[in-house]
Amino acid sequence: MKKRTGIQKRWMFNNLSIVILLVLAVVVAFPLAFTMYYYSNMQSGLEAKAKTTTDFFGNYLGQSYNEYYQSCINVAHNFEDKNTLELQFISPSGRLVASSYGQWAGKGPGTSDVDAAIETKRLAIFNGTNPATGERIMAVSSPMIYTNGEVIGVLRYVTSLKNVGRQILMLTAVTVVVGVLFILLIMYNSRYFIRSIIEPVSEITETAKRISAGGYGVQIKKKFDDEIGELTDTINDMSVKLGQAERMQSEFVSSVSHELRTPLTAISGWGETILSAETMDPVETRRGMVIILRETRRLTDMVEELLEFTRMQDGRFTLNVEPADLQAEFEDTVFMYGSRLKQEGIELVYLENDDVLPEIPCDISRMRQVFLNILDNAAKHGGEGRRITAEIRQEGEYAAVRIRDFGPGIPEDELPHVKMKFYKGSTKARGSGIGLAVCEEIVTMHGGQLVLSNAEGGGTLVTIRLPIGEGA
Questions:
Q1: Dist. CA 38–CA 127, nearest whole Å
Q2: In this predicted model, what pLDDT tens digit does every residue of 360-416 receive, in sequence order?
Q3: What distance in Å separates the CA atoms of residue 407 and residue 398, rounded to the nearest whole number?
Q4: Torsion angle (degrees, nearest 10) of CA 156, 162, 164, 166
């Protein structure tokens, strides 16, 4: 739970901090940009209007002051936009001459734009507080210049920013509300997304703990077809394989224990019999010694097989590759092993052909080990067929060795597993279950293939293919 909370906190902090900063930036920037845009447009409109009206009044600048004064009053009185704008006419001394709001001669506005327009003889802008009312206003003052260059008055447009301020405040409030809603939505989506990841991961973690504690074979229910689903499939597959490995290892230990106990019992029994007998028939003594020697060799073979497997596991399994007559070695092995099988009533037939194989780069002692192991398996598992065939021939760039027995064969569901270490399947024959794994490792290190299949007509067919070219 601590890990889950930590991931949630990191995710929420890392993502929400960025979202909040972006929302704050928008909340600040959007109203500010809107204000600048609105004020800029308003100012441009007032400037254009002031310039147009000033140009219009140019027609009256040649009149007397009284006529000019009366013209200002008339224009102010008839001003059409008096609901939104105030039109003022101001004297060079800064006093109000006329106003569209009905104010006549009186105190001037007292803002900087009037003085600036008179002094610079250019348009001047004021954006601030009205000294008389304290209200926020925007004003544009345009000087009216007589023909001799003298400023005889100022035309001034004034508009209140009260409504603009309200609009900006409302816009800011809406932006803040939208930003907060957006943050809440991101938080909700983030929590949902995190839960969709963390809950399956937590379940996978718990299952992994059960597997590490020995609960092999436990499965996780797959809920998603994404990376989480792929991880679930991987964990489930690992759990199944660990369960199989654990089961095969247990079977291996049990099998090895049984395999060791049988020859040791025979050796121990005959040893005690020979030692305890004061007089013993020479024939019986010889029989006991033959059994002791045979079981001792059997133990030696088992120990050698276990040592080979250990070397294979820790990377000390090596080859001594040199050109060798594999065909002659195979034939010698078949004939030598055939004599031994003949005593057990099993016929080993060598299928001769006209192929003469060239020397093949290989570790000849290791390949002899492979041949003997496969022949021994054929005798153990297919011995009831009382017949084994063996042949070697060239097939393209490969030397192909085939050994077939005429026993019951291998169940189809066990074929994919028979070369796995510790696997013995449903067979009751003796053995540790690692012989074929060692054989496949040897063949693979030579760059070849070891294939087991069920032969047509019954029995098991083992095929070994080795490259005739350079060795692996």
A1: 13
A2: 999 998 899 899 889 988 888 776 778 999 999 999 899 999 999 988 888 888 887
A3: 28
A4: 180
DSSP labels for 124-144? EEEEEE-TTT--EEEEEEEEE
Tallying the residues shown for the chain, one arrives at 472
Residue 235, number of CB atoms within 10 A of its CB: 19
Q: Are 326 and 399 in contact, with CB atoms under 8 Å apart?
A: yes
The residues that bridge with 460 in the sheet, in sequence order, are 454
What pTM does this model have? 0.46
Question: Which positions ≥6 away from 327 have C-beta within 8 Å?
Answer: 355, 356, 357, 392, 399
Using a CB cutoff of 8 Å and minimum separation of 24, what contacts does 289-298 make? 291/266, 291/267, 292/266, 292/267, 295/262, 295/263, 295/264, 295/266, 295/267, 296/263, 296/267, 298/263
Which single residue is written with the structure tokens 């021939």?
Answer: 393
- Match 């290791």 to its residue by tokens: 366
The label of the residue with tokens 């025979």 reads 266
Half-sphere exposure (CA, 13 Å, Cβ side) for 416?
1
The residue type found at 59 is N
CB atoms within 10 A of CB 108: 18
How is residue 131 written in tokens?
Answer: 């000294």
Would you tell me how many other CB atoms lie within 10 Å of the CB of residue 381? Answer: 22
At residue 392, what are phi and psi to the nearest 5 degrees?
A: -140, 135
- Measure the CA–CA gap between 421 and 409, rounded to whole angstroms: 19
Cα–Cα distance measured from residue 47 to residue 90, given in angstroms and rounded to the nearest whole number: 17
Give me the residues paired with residue 449 across strands: 465
Pick the residue with more confidence: 390 or 341?
390
CB 280 within 8 A of CB 452: no
Q: Are strands 322-324 and 347-350 parallel, antiparallel or unpaired?
A: unpaired
Q: Reduced to 3 states, what is the DSSP secondary structure of residue 361? A: strand
- Lowest-pLDDT range of 57-61, 288-292, 293-297: 57-61
Query: Is the distance from CB of 161 to CB of 136 less than 8 angstroms?
Result: yes
Q: Which of 167, 106, 118, 169 is nearest to 142 (CA)?
A: 118
Tokens for 143, please give them: 């000087």
Determine phi and psi for 96, rounding to 5 degrees.
Answer: -75, 125
Whole-angstrom distance between the N-terminal and C-terminal Cα of the chain? 52
- Side by side, which strands form the sheet with 449-454? 347-350, 387-395, 398-405, 460-467, 449-454
387 within 8 A of 349, measured Cβ to Cβ: yes
In contact, 370 and 449? CB cutoff 8 Å: no
* Residue 145 β-bridge partners: 151
